[in-house]
Amino acid sequence: MYQRLPMDIPVRFLTEYMVLLCVIGAYATIAVNVGPNKQALRGAESVVLPCQYTSDDAAPTVRWWKEPDIPGQPRTRVYHVTNGQAFTGYADRASIVDQASLKLMNVGMLDEGTYVCSVEKNTDYEEGSVKLEILVAPNPPSISSYNPPLEANSKRQVVARCTSEGGKPEATLSWYNGSQLISGGLSDDDDDQGGTLIQDRDDGTFNIISDLIVALSRYDQGQQYFCQVDHPALDQPQKEYIQMEVLCKYLKKCARRSSIFT
User: Fold this and answer.
1) 42: which DSSP letter?
2) What transmembrane ranges does the database entry give (predicted)?
């Protein structure tokens, strides 16, 4: 608080004092510090978007907003921190923790986006933004279009198809022969041993389809191939296996035998 000035203070000093107050007021600052971008599983119990601030004023106005999905549209009001008010769509599932951090409950797909924490007092205004990405774990992989026994052939052929449905972002499918990676990722290169197709779903998730395309030889008889799904929402990769059954032109030349030859 400011002290009362003596009544007999000279006018010159009074003028200088008032100028000093104006200068100090002009340099009053607000600083906003938001945390790193966040990821949360769809249906997660809660996620916290960090925001802290410093201000020369004890009671600045603090708000949370959500940037529009379509550029040029107005921001969506999320939470008025100073008044303790959550707006439509966030009532009963938004709260403030750790000074000004936004805690969202029961996170869903519509919560994904960029959130803005703004702090203002009079003409002083600062803001910071943090992105929230919603993750959806894909279904375990399933292998189809595998119809053994397959003929050994020097030409490449579609041996099997692997599908994983419902992930967000897109999962990565890879094919392995034992511990050896033989195809993975997205590629249109003719030399690649597999191709991957991404299908959009109405709920904002994706289906991933990957074909195993190889030239089989007699040495593939009995080999274990598997399709692996990697995704940030999974604690560890998911796998689906097949045992390769190769029909050789001359049975004695097969490197291994399986039950189909006995």
Assistant:
1) T
2) 17-35
On the CB side of 109, CA atoms within 13 Å amount to 10
Residues 160 and 199 in one domain: yes
Please write the tens of the pLDDT for every residue from 36-47: 999 999 999 999
- As for how many domains the chain has, the answer is 2
* Residue 152 belongs to domain spanning: 142-261
The Cα-based distances of 241 to 38, 196, 210, 223 in angstroms read 34, 18, 14, 10
The string of pLDDT tens digits covering residues 212-227 is: 988 888 888 888 999 9
Q: Do 52 and 36 fall into the same domain?
A: yes
Q: Identify which of 101, 107, 108 has the alpha carbon closest to the alpha carbon of residue 48.
A: 101
Q: What is the pLDDT confidence band of residue 57, given thresholds at 50, 70 and 90?
A: confident
Q: What's the angle, vertex CA 94, arms to CA 34 and CA 115, rounded to 5?
A: 35
Identify the H or E element spanning 11: helix 11-26
